[in-house]
Amino acid sequence: MTWFGKRISFRRLADRAIEFASTLAALTAAAIVLLILAFITIEAWPALRDPGPARFVTDRTWFPLSGQFGLLPMLTASVLTTIGAVLLAAPPGIASALWVRYWAPPSLAWFHRRAIAILAGTPSVVFGQWGLVVLAPLIAAWGGSGQSLLTAVIVLALMTLPTIALASDAALGSIDDELVRGGAALGLGRWGIASRVVLPAARSSLLAGILLAAARAVGETMAVLMVAGNVPNFPESLLAPVRTLTANMALEMGYASASHRSILFVSGLLLMVAVAIPYLLATIARPRSDHG
Amino acid sequence: MAERRSNFGRSNSRRVDRVAGVIVSVAALSIVALLGWVVVATLRAGLGEIDLPFLTTAPTRAGRGGGIGPLIVSTLLVLAIAMLAATPIALLAAIRLAERSRQDRPGAVVARSGLIVLAAVPSIVFGLFGNALFCQALGMGYSILAGGLTLGCMILPFMTVTAERALRDLPDDWRLGAAALGIGRLSYLWRIELPAAAPALGSALALGIGRSLAETAALLFTSGYVMRVPTSLFDSGRTLSVHVYDLAMNVPGGASRASATACVLIGLMVLIDGTVVASLARIGAGRSAPIRRDASRDRASRIGDRS
Amino acid sequence: MTSPLRSFLPLALMLAALAGCRPPAESAGEAERSAANRLEGRLLLSGSSTVAPLVSEIAARFEAMHPGVRIDIQTGGSGKGIADVRAAQADIGMTSRPLKEDEQDLVAHRLATDGVALIVQASNPIPELTRQQVIDIYTGAIDDWSRLGGAALPIQVVHKAEGRATLEVFLAHFEIDNTAIRPDVIVGENAQAILAVAGSPGAIGYVSIGSAETEARLGAAIRLLPLDGIPATSDEVAAERFPMSRSLNLVVTSEPSPLALAFIDYARSEAVHDLVREAYFVPSTR
């Protein structure tokens, strides 16, 4: 398809304008990424020089004002909450998109989409309050204070659901109707079409949506801060309190002096690295498998 | 997705269909139920406080009295700026990234990973970044403009990635057909690609609007805390979500007002989503009449037959 | 995507128009009344989110008296307030703690006082805790209420995040090193601590007395514990008898503008004591 793409692209002046504008837009997006990375790095720089990167890994715990800078427990917490939330949210999120596209009566589908959009537009604090007031006491019945890894995972799953559902909806909506028609011609039922035709065809788009949701979950701050318990230790169980890297920044940033602030930005930098490395590895591992 | 060995027996496939239908419906409906749980709790706590004066007057007593009128104005202004800034960039960048000839180029790979990383930046970092770049370096101060632009940066990855996927998943045949007919890139984009992708682009827009309305930490440091009606885009103006946070966390006795404000925020989301996004889906369906409408109608009826 | 642009443009124009035609905020009568001491200009305050709601109320009253003055309040924490004042990004900083040793280049004016009290869930029968008991609970030596005469229930220790003013007051009063504390939950704001304690029968925490009194009155399931035999009430804080308290301050450089000084004077005057009390703090008596 490549050669066709090119021939269409450069046909007219207007086409070149689009070409130019879209390149400019892509560059702008890239520039924003670079600016943010540069900003975080500059802010974190003093702490990277003193106490230096090693301490963030070797120190066992986090008492920045008493000279203990271990970030690993919080990195673990961020990774665990994110993976847990995505594992919980992805199946119902994709199922919801399937239902909307292939099962729901049109009026209900419309209602469902709006409901998901509302969920997407509900502020973190509302989720946090709900998690703290409603969910935490329920979980406390199993032991602990109720503010725990598990609570954070559930609240975070709820918050990532709309991202996954909306992105999946978009992914399913863009599938070639010919495929669906072909599936129907083969005598496949709805589930047959959904599982053998639609989902495989939309696989990479669904994955992109899940990745976005995971990124959103990693970066979420306020709601997690309200329900996770925020003790900066390695969690011993699902009911143990955890502190994520984002909660760490939000909890302490407001009262931090200059050096403490710089150390907090290391949390942010670590978060970026933690997101970028798996993604880049995955991309490099299968660079050409991404043709929709 | 259990890959069952193919058994095209009609009754069996029907039974599988029915079971799958139940599972999928239950999943979809339980999401709405969970939503209900969270939202209804908020509505019950806050709906009673909402009346016309609440929507139109200014807050008094740090938000425990008065209304939220000025904050609604600030919220809409910040949202408008964020969407005006992010939508064209996201769409154009998505067009660029979706071009088949260029997908595996290092530039595209780096740009895509950059966007994912950007999506993971915690909102408080966006806030501090926006404060450093827009408020201080570019001299905007705490302002609606700085807040809107910061939000624009923040929702950019969500909108770009979703829109890119929407464009990329369109069938190749169309492109080939357009090429055969000698249709230029722009016309193809305008007449075929965008309308066909409109519903999915609507999802991208809904994501962007939702995140913008819900955002707190990024705006606390950029559009700020001032409760006046902004007289210009360079004025600071508190958004509804910042108000919710402040009432819930910093104002003793502010909890019920926080819930009431959250209700208004949810209502605003319903309103904007119901008009802008839904009409976008309809416009898209209308403009692409020759290709899309028939196909989707066909599909709906054909699948419907089988149940 | 021209369709959304088309939809948004009228919306944006409408908003711009709406924002443009705002009615004048101050009445003419007030303008005349304050013509005698004419103050003009803009003030930017930034800092503690605990202090900000109170100061915005004071600022609104000050603006009403001086129509030429405009005061913008921004938050971000005590640390940001200090940093902004130093960087001349803000005229006045707001802090919920006293100045530290390395902040002595600035001048703090006490705006109000806020007590810090221990709270437990309302269902908890414990009448009072001794100093040593509190220390034992927070350092993990006692981890069940039955050892203190209560029901057999694990103690959930609710603690604050490092740097918070209430935490520093608490640690200083009980002379505990922060690294020795074994918390079950760490929170940021007072409201969060109150919710955490109200939702967990075995929890204990420490919060601003004003916030706790208010929320308890509004039905939150918490109870304030007396400290060293003194009931945890705003009155005891006002009488300077309650042992754990912190100061809420307005912070300026050594050379503040006349307008900033005028505002600070006003914020510390009796004219705003009603606002301070309404924010559930104790007004500073000079």
Can you characterise this structure?
The complex is a heterotrimer of chains A (292), B (307) and C (286). Chain A is mainly α and 292 residues long. Chain A is 76% helix and 1% strand. Chain A has two domains: 3-49; 58-285, Orthogonal Bundle (MetI-like fold), CATH 1.10.3720.10. Chain A has a two-stranded antiparallel ribbon with strand order 1-2. In chain A, helix 2 packs across helix 13, helix 8 runs antiparallel to helix 9 and helix 12 packs antiparallel against helix 13. Residues 287-292 of chain A have low confidence and may be disordered. In chain B, helix 5 packs across helix 6. Chain B has helices at 10-46, 52-56, 69-98, 106-120, 123-137, 144-168, 172-180, 185-214, 217-220, 240-249, 255-287, 289-306, and strands spanning 59-60, 65-66. The relative contact order of chain B is 0.14. Chain B has twelve helices and two strands, in the order H-H-E-E-H-H-H-H-H-H-H-H-H-H. With 286 residues, chain C is of the alpha/beta class. In chain C, 37% of the residues lie in helices and 21% in strands. Chain C has helices at 2-20, 28-33, 52-65, 78-86, 131-139, 165-174, 190-198, 209-217, 234-238, 258-267, 273-278, and strands at 41-47, 69-75, 92-95, 107-121, 156-160, 185-187, 203-208, 222-224, 245-252, 282-283. In chain C, helix 6 (165-174) links the parallel strand 5 (156-160) and strand 6. The longest helix of chain C has 19 residues, at 2-20. In chain C, 51% of the residues are buried. The A-C interface holds A 61, 63-66, 68, 129, 132-133, 136-137, 140, 144-147, 225-226, 229-232, 241, 243, 250-258, 260-261 and C 48-49, 76-80, 82-83, 97, 100, 102, 156, 158, 161-165, 177-179, 183-188, 192, 195-196, 199-200, 202-203.
